[in-house]
């Protein structure tokens, strides 16, 4: 029996964006498979948000092409927009209106019937754990609750791809973990997720694959574990002449042996994605 | 055109949350003008044989429809730069014309509320005029035109401060010069020619003629119609271009 060919949910071909003198994106090409949770990792100003804004139709690319489920985001924008939901970095809800009203307006914009809007709103408010706040004005909700409402709004029209731009920025660690659990659940329900983050642990915990972006350039793409394994399993941080240096080893034992002959303070820990980013770019992610 | 009703519905919901403030604010300006200019200056005054208050009310209605129609620019600005809700419309699968239609219809609704308040105040002050079909037609066309202009300019400005400048340099002078408080025919000939290019002059003329029971000049409606279509098309173009 022939296996089912995985479909492309997101495809970028030589995507370039220039703002006057600043080259925000430099010929980015990548593909995200249907059902994947793909993380776009890089420091502030690396081009993560610009990529997402082009994909959802908020920014025009200078050159290159972007597709959502095969629809070109500019030439076939209405169809492309139907494929995706978008949760921007900044909170963009109507604060005077209730949670239910914010969601209802979104449903109307996507031409959903009254019955479907009602059912989906009830389902999603339960899904995000805010069923009891449906009639609360958004201004009365906490930051974490507002973020969950934005996620529910983006899911209302049942998009096949969800774009999350720094979904947990500014949230405390406990709320952040709640959002992570929600994101994982959305993926398990069959939605492709494309998220940007500069939190290393977020990408490590959530992503099936990560792409590193630095100064508008795509540095590398791969599975988090494979990328980390390419350096080693263990990292030894040392301080030499007031400079921090990190060495990588296959085993903890090797790291300990190296540390024993090394003068000065040191620490041994597991390799993380930040190490991969630094080894490739010489810069930190956050 | 799908989606225009969602844009309009959102604006109505937001208006409902502050309806009493809005109605009070819409009432203050005409009330002051009626008292100050109507009673203070013109209780005994007539213009072309018409009592000054009866002359003033249609002019105020024209000015109010312009201001209330144009005021949606501030709301769009706040939505765009402060709350960032405008992005919600940009990522929705709706065309620019649907967005513009929703906003412009809301501008017309606001204008109708403002003019309704003026006609109510006029009635309270004992001024009886004829608010017939041609009066309301000119009001709707004027509000449509200025609401369309408001959407265009809201897409072009980059801050709230720019928005305030536009009101100071465009809307306020038009309100005072376009035949609201005095007959344009009293101005020097060259000024009259300039004022003929202002849509508010035509709105005031048509609304005044209708309210006083005279036949409005069809040319005024043609001018308002042509300019309305031009500004509406401009608004659609500006919204389509409002991307980084």
Using brief descriptors, characterize the structure shown.
heterodimer, A: 286 residues, alpha/beta, Rossmann fold, 2 domains, four-stranded antiparallel β-sheet, 29% strand, globular, B: 244 residues, mainly alpha, two-stranded antiparallel sheet, 11 helices, 2% strand, ABC2_TM_bact-type (chain B), transmembrane (chain B)
Could you walk me through the main structural features you see in this protein, from its secondary elements to its overall organization?
The complex is a heterodimer of chains A (286) and B (244). Chain A is of the alpha/beta class and 286 residues long. Chain A has helices spanning 48-56, 77-83, 99-109, 114-127, 143-155, 173-188, 200-206, 224-229, 252-260, 273-281, and strands spanning 8-19, 22-33, 37-41, 63-68, 71-72, 84-87, 161-165, 192-197, 209-214, 217-222, 234-240, 243-249, 266-270. Chain A folds into 2 domains: 8-223, P-loop containing nucleotide triphosphate hydrolases (Rossmann fold, 3-Layer(aba) Sandwich); 232-270. Chain A has a 6-stranded mixed beta sheet with strand order 6-7-8-3-9-10, sandwiched between helices. Chain A has a 4-stranded antiparallel beta sheet with strand order 2-1-4-5, covered by helices on one side. A 3-stranded antiparallel beta sheet of chain A has the order 12-11-13, covered by helices on one side. The mean pLDDT of chain A is 93. With 244 residues, chain B is mostly helical. Chain B has one domain (4-241). Chain B is built from 11 helices and 2 strands; from the N terminus they run ααββααααααααα. Chains A and B meet through α2 and α3 of A and α1 and α5 of B.
């Amino acid at each position: 029996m022939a296996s089912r060919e995985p479909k492309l949910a997101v495809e970028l071909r030589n995507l370039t964006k220039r703002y006057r003198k600043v080259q925000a994106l430099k010929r980015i090409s990548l593909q995200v498979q249907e059902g994947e949770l793909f993380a776009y990792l890089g420091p502030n100003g690396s081009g993560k948000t610009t990529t997402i804004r082009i994909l959802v139709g908020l920014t025009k690319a200078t050159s290159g092409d972007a597709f959502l489920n095969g629809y070109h985001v500019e030439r076939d924008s209405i169809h492309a927009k139907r494929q995706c939901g978008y949760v921007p970095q900044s909170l963009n809800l109507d604060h005077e209106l209730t949670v239910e009203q914010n969601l209802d307006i979104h449903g109307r914009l996507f031409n959903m019937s009254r019955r479907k809007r009602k059912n989906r709103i009830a389902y999603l408010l339960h899904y995000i754990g805010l069923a009891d706040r449906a009639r609360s004005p958004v201004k009365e909700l906490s930051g974490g609750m507002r973020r969950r409402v934005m996620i529910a709004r983006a899911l209302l029209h049942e998009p096949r791809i969800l774009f999350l731009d720094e979904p947990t920025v500014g949230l405390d660690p406990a709320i952040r973990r709640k959002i992570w659990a929600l994101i994982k659940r959305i993926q398990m329900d069959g939605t492709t997720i494309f998220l940007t983050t500069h939190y290393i642990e977020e990408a490590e915990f959530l992503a099936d694959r990560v792409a590193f972006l630095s100064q508008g350039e795509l540095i590398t793409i791969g599975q988090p574990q494979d990328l980390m394994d390419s350096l080693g399993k263990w990292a030894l941080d040392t301080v030499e002449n007031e400079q921090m240096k990190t060495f990588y080893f296959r085993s903890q034992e090797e790291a300990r042996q190296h540390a024993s002959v090394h003068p000065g303070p040191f620490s041994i820990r597991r390799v993380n994605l930040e190490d991969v980013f630094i080894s490739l770019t010489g810069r930190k992610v956050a | 055109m799908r989606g225009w009703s969602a844009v309009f519905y959102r604006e109505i919901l937001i208006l409902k949350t502050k309806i009493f403030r809005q109605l009070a604010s819409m009432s203050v300006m005409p009330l002051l003008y009626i008292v100050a200019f109507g009673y203070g200056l013109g209780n005994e005054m007539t213009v072309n044989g018409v009592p000054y208050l009866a002359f003033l009310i249609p002019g105020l209605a024209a000015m109010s429809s312009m201001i209330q129609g144009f005021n949606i620019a501030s709301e769009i600005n706040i939505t765009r730069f402060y709350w960032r809700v405008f992005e919600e419309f940009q990522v929705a699968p709706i065309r620019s014309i649907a967005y513009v239609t929703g906003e412009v219809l809301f501008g017309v609704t606001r204008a109708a509320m403002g003019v309704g308040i003026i006609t109510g105040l006029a009635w309270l002050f004992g001024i009886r005029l004829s608010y017939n079909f041609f009066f309301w037609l000119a009001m709707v066309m004027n509000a449509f035109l200025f609401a369309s202009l408001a959407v265009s300019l809201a897409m072009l400005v980059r801050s709230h401060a720019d928005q305030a400048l536009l009101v100071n340099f465009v809307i306020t002078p038009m309100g005072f010069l376009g035949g609201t408080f005095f007959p344009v025919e009293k101005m020097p000939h060259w000024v009259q020619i300039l004022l003929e290019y202002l849509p508010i002059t035509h709105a005031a003329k048509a609304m005044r003629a209708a309210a006083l029971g005279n036949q409005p000049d069809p040319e005024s409606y043609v001018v308002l119609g042509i300019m309305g279509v031009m500004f509406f098309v401009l608004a659609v173009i500006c919204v389509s271009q409002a991307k980084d």
